[in-house]
Write a structure and sequence with these properties.
- With 299 residues, the protein is an alpha/beta fold.
- The protein folds into two domains: 164 residues, Rossmann fold, CATH 3.40.50.720; 123 residues, N-(1-d-carboxylethyl)-l-norvaline Dehydrogenase, domain 2.
- Helix content is 49%, strand content 13%.
- It has 13 helices and nine strands.
- The protein has a six-stranded parallel β-sheet with strand order 3-2-1-4-5-6, sandwiched between helices. Strands 7-8-9 form a three-stranded mixed β-sheet.
- Helix 4 runs parallel beside helix 6, helix 9 packs across helix 12 and helix 9 packs across helix 13.
- Keywords: Branched-chain amino acid catabolism, NAD, Oxidoreductase.
Length: 299
């Protein structure tokens, strides 16, 4: 039986770890929040006292952390503290599903390779609902051999598994996707608000645009206008889903990458500015579709 160490049990990591348990794997977990570990223990996971304790002797390590500095610190350690690369057994596969800067992913991958380990950056798309349902999309960077080893594990948590290229490529593809998503959400919110301001029913307008040239994922799966679509954050006071603060983080990563490659991303830059402003108004922990409120006229 495969033993997986899963480190980072937040809104995404927790459900992902549960799906590994359901797939019959032995799952050892660690999180800085004890309640998160207890919740997983109740579903069959084995709790550990530390990240290194969870990872030691595991066949696979999966991490889901907030930012690049956390991933570098966990894997590489410091003069005062061991990193995962110091304690994992020979042949352990390392998978990081955090959304971080590509340079951090490449740095950890190079350090892992120097010690003989396969490291795959595998950020996800699909949100908390996809994490719970096991239908996530994994966007992977790493060697062909690393991807081949990671795929069976990722298939226990996701429905679409892509190999984008070498180390860091998964992160680049992920931030490209989220930059586009932010632009689509802003544009959809703007268009719906224009229709509402001119007397249109947002449900009727959404149905029209869905099957017309303006059709996009936000209209089909994640309508930002309250009451148009059930079971999405906009119909639950924008609770749940993908937080504005996380979108701001990802858009910051996209603009850092654009500066590095001298890419022109005016729509991405504008979307970041709009989301930063939205977060500053106290919306950071609400779903990113709440950007709709920036265009809504007060009646």
């Amino acid at each position: 039986m495969t033993t997986v160490a899963f480190i980072g049990l937040g809104n995404m990591g927790g459900p992902m770890a549960v799906n590994l348990i359901k797939a019959g794997m032995t799952v050892r977990v660690f999180d800085l929040v004890p309640a998160a570990m207890q919740s997983l223990a109740e579903q069959g996971a084995i709790t550990a006292q530390s990240a290194c304790g969870a990872a030691a002797g595991a066949d696979v390590v999966v991490t889901m952390l907030p930012a690049g500095k956390h991933v570098r610190s966990l894997y590489l350690g410091s003069e005062q503290q061991q990193g995962l690369l110091d304690v994992v057994a020979e042949g352990t596969l390392l998978i990081d599903s955090s959304t971080i800067d590509a340079d951090s992913a490449r740095t950890v991958a190079a350090a892992a390779a120097a010690k003989g380990f396969e490291f795959v950056d595998a950020p996800v798309s699909g949100g908390t609902a996809g994490a719970a349902a096991g239908t996530l999309t994994f966007i992977c960077g790493g060697s062909d051999a690393g991807f081949a080893k990671a795929k069976p594990v990722l298939e226990c948590m996701g429905a679409n598994i892509f190999h984008a290229g070498s180390a860091g490529a998964g992160q680049v593809a992920k931030i490209c996707n989220n930059m586009l998503l932010s632009v689509l959400m802003v544009g959809t919110s703007e268009a719906l608000s224009l229709g509402i301001d001119n007397g249109l029913d947002p449900k009727v307008l959404s149905d029209i645009m869905k099957v017309s040239s303006g059709g996009n994922w936000t209209l089909e799966k994640y309508n930002p206008c309250p009451g148009v679509m059930p079971s999405v954050p906009s119909s639950n006071d924008y609770q749940g889903g993908f937080m504005v603060d996380l979108m701001v983080k990802d858009l910051g990563l996209s603009q850092e990458a654009a500066l590095s490659s001298q890419s022109s991303t005016p729509m991405g830059a504008l979307a970041r500015s709009l989301y930063v402003n939205h977060a500053r108004k106290g919306n950071g922990r609400r779903d990113f579709s709440s950007i709709f409120e920036q265009f809504k006229q007060e009646k």
